[in-house]
Amino acid sequence: MSHLKKIIWGVEAFSEDKSLQNKTAHALKAILSHTLAQVDPVYVLSPDQLRLPVEVFSDSVEAPHYNFDNFADHAREVAGVIEKELQDWLGGLNLPRMTTPRLLIQEEFSLRASVSSLIRFAKSEQADWIAVSTHARHGMARFLLGSFAETLVHASELPVLVVGPDSVEMSDVRFLIFPTDFTPASRRTFEKAVGLAQELKVELILFHKVVYLTRYLSAFRQDAEDIDHQMRNTGLRKEEAERWAEWGREQGATVSVAIEDLVTADVASAILARAHETPSSLVVMASQTGPVESAMLGSVTRKIVRHASCPVLVLHP
Fold it and tell me: 175-315: what CATH class?
């Protein structure tokens, strides 16, 4: 992974509750304390945000009424109001190396189009990461509003830093937690994580949750052969983890190994528990690994992104 130079921060201009975005700002500040990267805040204005809060307009500025036919014209009319709102809020964050916020006008009524607009902008700016927060909506709210962060994680080739509602306010980064299933794609992502650990000068924890297939395939019985196979499989995975860790140490990184072999915990719950038990941590994980694992790991990634007690950096292998 190349040195971290620029992070595009996708902000929300008119969210009444700024607590989640403030958590994102704290996470960025913690990361910036280890690098010389700059942060470029960006707001994507799209037709699904047509009804801007009246409070953002001064007494001398009439709140405009939008329609889909001339959305771009109206968006440009209120661009100054939006940028001032952002500057007033961002100015109080004391985030180092943060640039003036910018507004992207996206004319399609489409969550995916808004995500694509942010990705295109990040690439045009040669950004290294994109940072966003997620409200982790569920049920009908998620069906109606969608998830910008999860759509971004799925679509972006750039690493995406996600801060969820369960994340604690971060003051420093001391550990990177890298969950792995030992596939080739996971190995490629691990090598990127090693480079990041070196740059941030933090410890990388190589984490693996042993999955006992007999828990699902033989729910009502386990014979001696099953148990023996599980023990040998766990031993092989521990050996593989140590080989990966040794390679990371040879690159100059501080790498430790953590193997979770409790039968009761599923993969996502084990990762969440490890993150909760490790203060000042950042989970670094692959979006998916391979065709067989993609469905399971994709659901694991979604659960981690939604419920982690720390920020999550999602990398594409």
Answer: alpha beta
All structural domains of the chain with their residue ranges: 6-163, 175-315
Helices (H), 46-183: 71-77, 79-90, 111-124, 139-145, 148-155
As a CATH number, domain 6-163 is 3.40.50.620
Contact 32, 97 (CB under 8 A): yes
Pairing state of beta strands 203-209 and 175-179? parallel
The pTM assigned to this predicted structure is: 0.84
CB 129 within 8 A of CB 313: yes
Whether 6-163 shares its CATH topology with 175-315 is answered yes
Q: What is the pLDDT of residues 198-225, one digit of tens each?
A: 999 999 999 999 876 554 444 444 454 4
**Beta partners for residue 98, in sequence order:** 39
CA atoms 6, 285, 28, 247: torsion sign: negative
